[in-house]
Amino acid sequence: MKPFRFLRRKRVTLPLALAAVWATVWFALPFAVPLPEGLSGAAPVSPVVLDRHGRPIHRLTLPDATRAETVSLADLPSDFIACTLAAEDKRFRHHGGIDPLAGMRAVKDLAAHRRVVSGASTITQQLVKISSPPCKRTLAAKLRESLGARRLEMTRSKDEILIAYLNRLDYGNRRVGPAEAARFYFQKPLADLSLAECALLAGLPQAPTRLNPIKRPAAALQRRDTILDRLEKTGVLDPKRLVLSRNEPLNLRPLREKSAAPWLLAQSAIHNPQSAIATTLDLDLQHDVESIVTEELNALRTANLHHAAVVVLHNPTGEILALVTSGDWHDPRGGQIDGTWIPRSPGSTLKPFTYLLGFERAGQFPGSILADVPTRFRTPEGLDLPANFDRTHRGPVSIRTALACSLNVPAMRELNLLGGPASLHRLLTDLGLTTLGDHPTQDGLGLTIGNAPVRLLELTNAYATLARGGDHLPPRLFSTAPAGKPRRLCDPVATYLIADILADPDARAPSFGRHGPLELPFRCAVKTGTSSDFHDNWCIGFTPEFTVGVWAGNFDQTPLGGLSGVAGAGPIFHRTMVRLHRDQSPAWFEPPSGVATIRIDPRTGHRLTDPADPRGKTEWCPKTSLPLFASAADYDPEGKALLDASFGEWFASSANLRRHDFSLACDRPAPEPLKILAPADGVVCLLDPELPSGGKTLRLASNLPGVARWSSPTLALDSNGSEPLARLVPGTHVLAATDPRDGTIRQVTIHVREL
Question: Under a CB-based contact definition with an 8 Å cutoff, are residues 397 and 641 in contact?
C-alpha cells in the first residue's frame, strides 16, 4: 500500500510545485529586475519655442539630435491605435506582457527559414527595450526585457503602457513619437490623418531606415498595405475604407519646410534648452512680416536690393512682436546674417535726437528758425562743407521743415550750437546704442547725419523711447526674462514735439512729396535714412502702440541702384504698420500739459499778437520757452522779413528763390560769434613745386562767409567769392578776420617754408 500512497502524493505535489514555480517566475521574479531608468519619468520631449499666445514656433532637438513630442491617449485617433496594434502586437490587449503564441510562431519560422523572419516581442517588451541603454542582443538581454515586461503589466494599465511606448518610438528621420512623425511627414495633427496615413506611420518603427518614405516610398507603401491587409482580417473596419486607403497616393510634406523666425533656433538653444521657451513674438504677425519683406525684396531686385531686416516693438512693454533678420534665411550671400544686429550707417535717422536736445536744452520749438546756408565746419581731417541730399540750400527754415525734409546742414549747425557731438553721443548711448565708440569727437558733427554705425534693434528701441514720452525700456524677446523698469531719459514735451513733426505729411512734402510710402491711413511718426552712396536704407517710426524699424541693403556692402530710404525700406515699413493696426485701432498721443499752440510768423519764428494776421501759422511750443513777439525791427518797410549777414552768401546765390519774403540786413549781427575755420593756428605750410600753383595759395575760411573781412600785414589776399585766397611766401605771418558788425577780430599765425 505504501508505494501506491507515494505515487498518489507525487501526482498531487508535482502540479503544485510546477504551479508554484510558474507563479514565482510569472508574478514574483519580475520584481527582482529593475525597470529601465528611461521609464522612471515622462518620455523625453523636445523643448518647444512658443509665441506669446503659446503656439509653437520651433521644436529644438534633444541631445541625441532627435525631435520628440508626446501625446495622451485621447490625442490618438482610433485608426492609428488599430494600425499600430496590427503592425506590432495584435494580442496586446489580451496577453500579460509576453505572447506565447507569437513566440511559438517565431520559433516555427526560424526553423523553417533558418533565419529570423518574424519577431515575438510584444509592445510591452519593446517598451522595455527602447527605454534601456543600447546593448548586445543576447539571451540574457531578452530575458531581462521579458521580466521587465511582466513587471510593467503588473504595475501599469494597458493604456499607460501603450502611450509610453508610442511616445518613445522612433519613426525615422530623427522623429520620435507619432505626433512629431505626423507633423514631419504630413504637416498634420494626428487627428487629421487618414486611415492610409495612420497605416503608413504605424509601419515605420519596424525598420525606420529601410522603410523611410522619403527615400524609399515603395517599401513604405508595401509595409502600409501589409498593415491594411492585417486590419482587413480583423473584420472591424469597413472594407470600402480599406480599398480607398490602399489606393491613396503617398502625399508627403515638402522636404524643405519654411519655418517662421529661423534665427530663433540659435537664440533659444542658448536661452533655456530644457523646457518650453516662451517668446514675445506673435506667430501670425511674424509670418505676415516675413511675407511682406519677401514680396518687397522681390519687387526691388532690379535695384540690387537683396536683404532687409525688420524689428516690431510693443511700446508699452518693450516686447519684440516680430523680427526679420535678412529676408531670406537660405540666401547664400549672407541670408543667415542678423541684419537687426550688425552695425550699419544710419543716414539721417539720428537727426530727431539732435533736435530733441535743442528742445530740451536750447529753448527751441518746431517753429524756431535755422540757417540752411553753405557752412564750413572744422574736422580733424580739415574743413568739411556738408550738403543736403538735393545739393541745394533753402536759407531760413524752421526746425519742423529741417527735420521733416531731413536737411543735413541745419542739423549739423544745430548740433554745433549745442556744443558739438558730445551731448548727442551721450544721449544716444543712454538710449542703448552701443556701437558709437567711447570718443564723442571721433565722428564730429557728422554724428547727426549718420557717420557712426548703429544697430537696427537698438535704434528702433531708441525711437520707442520717443513713443513712450521719454521712458526707456530694454527690448525683450523671451517672456521669462525680467521686465525692465522704465527710466525717464527724455522730456515728454520734447518727445511729443518730435513725434508731431515726424507725423506731419505737409512738412515733409517739399522733399518727399505726398501720398507715398511714408503716409499711412492714420497718424504715424516716421523718419527715413539713406547712407552715402546708397549702401543702406532705413525707415523707422511709431504710433503710441507700436514702433517699427526697417533696414534694407546688401550684407556685402554693394550699393543699391539709387534707392533711397523712402523707396527701399519705406514700402516694408508702410505695409508692416498697416498690418499691425489691422486688429487694433490706431490712436495718437494726447498733448502733454507743458505744450501750447501759438501763432507765429513762419519766416521769423516770432509770435504774432493778432491771431488773424495773414502771415500767421499755428505751431506747438513748450510753455516754458515761448518765443519773442514779432516787432517792427523784424521787417523792412516793404514787410519783408530781415535776415542777418550770415545769410549773405545764400541770399546772393541762385538758390535763393524767396526774395519776395526776405531782405538782407548786412549790419544785423549773426546769432553766432565769428570763428576762423581755416587755417588752424600754428599750421606749417610747405611750398611744394609739384603741387598745383606750387602750393603758393591758401584758402581762408570762417563760420561767417561773406561777413568776415580778412587782412594780413605780410601776405597778399586775392578776393575769391565769399572767402579770399592768401598768396604764400616763406616766413611767419598773421592772418586776421574781422566781424564788421561789432568789430570783433580773430587772428591765427601760420608758418610758410620751402620744401
Answer: no
Whose CA is closest to 303, among 694, 568, 654?
A: 568
Smallest CA-to-CA distance from 502 within 536, 534, 535, 548 is with: 548
Does 598 map to a domain?
no
Q: 685 and 540: one domain?
A: no
Q: 26 CB contacts (<8 Å, ≥6 apart)?
A: 96, 150
Q: pLDDT tens across 579-604, in order?
A: 999 988 899 999 999 999 999 999 99
Residue numbers of the domain that contains 711: 676-754
Cα–Cα nearest to 47, from 282, 322, 285, 270: 270
> Is residue 747 domain-shared with residue 686, that is, in the same domain?
yes
Question: What are the strands, taking DSSP E only, across 501-630?
Answer: 525-530, 536-542, 546-553, 595-600, 617-622
Lookup: cell for 571? 514700402
Q: How does pLDDT run across 145-196, given as a tens digit for each residue?
A: 888 778 888 888 999 999 999 999 999 999 999 999 999 999 899 999 999 9
Q: Model confidence over 484-509: pLDDT tens digits?
A: 789 999 999 999 999 999 999 999 99
Asked if 376 and 703 count as a contact pair (C-beta separation under 8 A), the reply is yes
**Angle at which helices 351-361 and 408-417 cross, to 10°:** 40
Do 154 and 71 share a domain, yes or no?
Answer: yes
CA 34 and chain centroid, separation: 51
User: What is the four-CA torsion angle of 131, 133, 138, 142, rounded to 10 degrees?
Assistant: -20
β-bridge mates for residue 379, sequence order: 382
Q: Are residues 107 and 18 in the same domain?
A: no
pLDDT tens digits, 450-482? 889 999 999 999 999 999 999 999 999 998 878
**pLDDT value, residue 12:** 58
Domain count across the chain: 4
Report the distance separating Cα 602 and Cα 636, nearest Å: 16
Q: How far apart are CA 58 and CA 48, in angstroms?
A: 6
